[in-house]
Design brief:
This protein is mainly alpha-helical. The chain is built from six helices and four strands. It is elongated. The C terminus is likely disordered. One of its GO terms (cellular component) is cytosol.
Length: 128
């Protein structure tokens, strides 16, 4: 079966031809930058302290609080920070700042707070 022709790497001024978006060298660089910026608080979410607290919150209240407020019954799968912690460890582990939500409600709440998943104030269109 014939393959698609190779195209230039999308990294600025890279002449390499590739079947992917970036050549192997630049793909590693792009991945590294993405990992640095995508989840700066990842270590907090991976801690055993958070896992235990999350499990406690979901055991204590197994239903989504937003859905319950709208007279629906949905299981909670996500523990949400009511007030965004932005890396504040004390606020991150404050049990009074946590609420159980279903994934749909959590995603909707986060999108409203962050303005389209972290792009607050950005209007879709072409940048110059």
């Amino acid at each position: 079966m014939p393959r698609k022709p190779k195209k230039p790497c999308r990294y600025p001024s890279c002449p390499e031809l590739t079947e992917e978006r970036y050549c192997k060298k630049h793909q590693k660089e792009i991945d590294r930058e993405y990992n640095k910026s995508s989840r700066p608080y990842k270590k907090l979410y991976n801690s055993s302290r958070w896992q235990k607290l999350r499990k406690h919150v979901l055991t204590k209240q197994p239903l989504c609080v937003i859905c319950l407020g709208n007279k629906r019954i949905n299981p909670a799968t996500v523990v949400d920070h009511i007030k965004p912690h932005k890396g504040d460890v004390k606020l991150f582990f404050d049990i009074n700042n946590l609420q159980p939500l279903c994934k749909t409600c959590h995603d909707r709440k986060t999108a409203k707070e962050d303005g389209r998943w972290g792009k607050k104030g950005v209007v879709y269109g072409y940048s110059q």
